[in-house]
Write a structure and sequence with these properties.
- By secondary structure, this protein is mainly α.
- The protein has one domain.
- The protein has six helices and no strands.
- It has helices spanning 2-10, 15-27, 33-62, 64-88, 95-126, 134-163.
- Helix 4 (64-88) crosses helix 5 (95-126) and helix 4 runs parallel beside helix 6 (134-163).
Length: 169
């Protein structure tokens, strides 16, 4: 995970991000940049939610393995979302901006993972008499936290790009 994050910081373009933005543009050729960003954000948010839900539901069985896999996926996904938004907005990013985006993605993914673990533990305590519902409640909470983190990254980056137009370092 760290190697891939480092590559996304050092390289100006990630081929996966470029392909995804091009795929959205080709499927919706009349879409504005804002609509492309909305579609990218929605796709990333649902992917994050699905992985977060599965990891949260499976955490009692797989323990830290589920959390580790989830954290890695979420951090990379959020970082790629940030890159995709900048690319969709036709805004080149500087090395410092890519570094900040990667760090923020890692921190946000870690925060969301902690929130999911806490929600899972709260669900286990609250549903001691009905343990069969614990995975469902944990999955819903984990999916919601992961979905919200992708939306948060999108919103924060949109605000940043609006307040910092293209510039040269």
């Amino acid at each position: 995970m760290y190697e891939t994050l480092a590559q996304t910081i050092l390289l100006e373009e990630d081929s996966r991000v470029t392909r995804e933005v091009e795929r959205v543009r080709s499927r919706h050729p009349r879409s504005s940049d804002a609509e492309v960003v909305r579609r990218l954000t929605t796709r990333a948010a649902w992917r994050c939610a699905a992985v977060g839900a599965v990891a949260s539901a499976g955490e009692p069985m797989f323990g830290r393995l589920a959390s580790t896999a989830d954290l890695s996926f979420q951090a990379l996904s959020l970082n790629r979302l940030a890159q995709g938004i900048a690319l969709a907005r036709r805004r080149p990013t500087m090395l410092v901006e890519r570094g900040v985006a990667a760090a923020a993605s890692l921190l946000l993914a870690g925060g969301a993972a902690a929130l999911r673990r806490g929600a899972g533990s709260a669900a286990r305590r609250a549903l001691r008499k009905r343990p069969e519902f614990v995975p469902i409640v944990a999955a819903l909470a984990g999916g919601a936290a992961a979905y919200a983190s992708a939306r948060l990254v999108s919103r924060a980056l949109e605000e940043y790009l609006a307040s910092h137009p293209k510039r040269k370092w």
